Amino acid sequence: MSVRHAIGRGLEYGRSFLQMGLLKIGGRVAAKLRADRLRVGHSVRTAQPQAFLPSRYRYYRTSLRGLAAQLQSASFRRRLTGGSPRNRVLCLAFGLGVGFIEEQLEDDRKSAATCQEIQAVFRRKRFQSTMKPFPSGYKLEDYIIGNQIGKGSNAVVYEAAPQCSTLKDKDSNCSLVQLREDEGEGERTRSVMCCSLRNFPLAIKMLWNFGAGSSSEEILKSMSHELVPAGPLAVELEKEHIVHDGQFGVLPKRVSAHPNVIRVYRAFTADVPLLPGAQDEYPDVLPARLNPAGLGNNRTLFLVMKNYPCTLRQYLEASTPGRRQGSLMLLQLLEGVDHLCKQGVAHRDLKSDNVLMEFDSDGCPRLVITDFGCCLAQRNASLELPFNSAWVSKGGNASLMAPEVATAVPGCGAVIDYSKADAWAVGAISYEIFGKLNPFYRGVGLESRKYEERHLPTLPPADVQLVIRLLLRRNPSKRPSARVAADMLHLSIWGGKALANRDSTGMKKLADWLLCQSAGVLLKGCRGPSGNSVEVELQRSFLSNLDLEDLRSAMGFLLYGWGQRPAHVLSV
Ligand SMILES: Nc1ncnc2c1ncn2[C@@H]1O[C@H](COP(=O)(O)OP(=O)(O)OP(=O)(O)O)[C@@H](O)[C@H]1O
């Protein structure tokens, strides 16, 4: 499809928006696409396929820029023009070269501007949680607490509902705990889960408190990482004041909302209560008030979140996603990790237990990264941790630590760079998503500190295999970032036709495709609930993060993969 067709189609979308009475959004799309017509039409004409090769391209561009600057300098021109005919020919050739370079640079600027404009259109619509806001909720007494949902090494999680809500079903005892016992009763299980989630839309996480003291301030300080995904109203206003002005200026920053990152609605401290199963399941962490032999402190931190039906691990124990669904799941993890990276946060404990799941209206799994207890969230957002002593924590689960973290040696001036560590862990978790054992789990085969890339097991879907292999590269400088890996998947899932052609029209097709995607996603966004489907969220996320350099790197990696396999295997 030509640019004109693409724009024409976009304009039609714009017009139909207007006809539908959606004046504002229709006007914006139509104006946007009209404005893009010249820009994209011009940039795709001269784009060369070689320009996709990221590092080499960047090298050429920098060298050519330097050369252009030299040629433009008066002294250089004098030296060349003043001499022999040979010098004059050389000068002419350089002059033509400069013209070409300038044209390339101009195209570059225009393409980057197009990406930025598409990005700006989609960034304007911020992601908002579907959860209804509820008043207060800063005290334990504000909640009805149901059954235990899960337990980890640092906390226990219970289903909960705001105190004001009335239970919608008599069978309020059913929960995931019971679900597991009822395994095999397919239909009944699903209805049990629905009733539990309807009655208890929230989950309360109670952290174990051994060494954090019993004052709210001390607790907030020592468990501060759990607050990284907390919303702006999560902590009571007066505590928030303490957090920002007092000694708690050291608290890490918080990340903004994202469809693939947990949102903590409320965080407060309270006395540890005797909840169902406490005496049997976690007697040692109870305070002496509840168990004379218990070692826990009297007060602790509580986090209120949405109650999700299951974790990724629980889901994968019961089912193996198909090829496309698996790709969408992997993509969501990459989008979540990219969002965290951009906000200067490394999760450092990604594993299938720390990913929660629900389903959209089409039945597509939505994945949400949770449990930020081990995260690195420095105010300077560098994602670099000074590693001057063996006492510095490198993060959670050692099996899924990226090679550069696992092999780091403490010492004066040593630093661990976490900027691609979570992306590596996503690569390892992908094996579970596609129905295989995670090769890095203890006893399965590989160790992150010393594996060789050629020993990585193969995965049946060839299309994502390339992405996973790249994510699991030992050398982080050769590993794509979560953003670039996500762009690769976006391009291979939705951009098949735009990418199928590897000649000089490739860039032109990509530009057409970006415009169609933008118009299509805006249109879907107006269509009620389907506008919140996982696929639309993912496409919106891609467009709101559009960056020419990242896109070129993604294309470069894909072309590199195609060099070894026929192009069609990359389309899902
Ligand atoms: N919002 C939620 N909705 C439903 N279940 C949840 C939720 N949060 C946690 N869970 C369940 O509780 C379990 C323990 O939670 P979490 O992983 O946060 O605890 P933890 O002690 O910090 O874990 P870890 O052992 O990894 O440190 C999870 O594996 C999951 O089964």
Structural commentary:
The protein has 572 residues and is an alpha+beta fold. The protein has three domains: 3-123, no CATH class; 140-307, no CATH class; 331-560, Transferase(Phosphotransferase) domain 1 (Transferase(Phosphotransferase), domain 1, Orthogonal Bundle). It is built from 20 helices and twelve strands. The chain has helices spanning 3-19, 23-46, 54-72, 74-81, 85-123, 176-181, 186-199, 216-222, 237-245, 278-281, 312-318, 323-342, 403-406, 421-433, 462-471, 482-494, 496-500, 506-525, 534-544, 548-562, and strands at 143-151, 155-162, 202-207, 264-271, 299-306, 310-311, 345-346, 355-359, 365-369, 376-377, 384-386, 415-417. It has a five-stranded antiparallel β-sheet. A three-stranded antiparallel β-sheet has the order 6-8-9. A two-stranded antiparallel sheet has the order 7-10. The longest helix has 39 residues, at 85-123. The protein is globular and about 95 Å long. It starts with a helix and ends in a 10-residue tail after the last helix. The relative contact order is 0.11. Bound molecules: adenosine-5'-triphosphate (ATP). Adenosine-5'-triphosphate (ATP) binds at residues 149-155, 157, 203, 205, 305-308, 311, 353-354, 356, 370-371, 373.
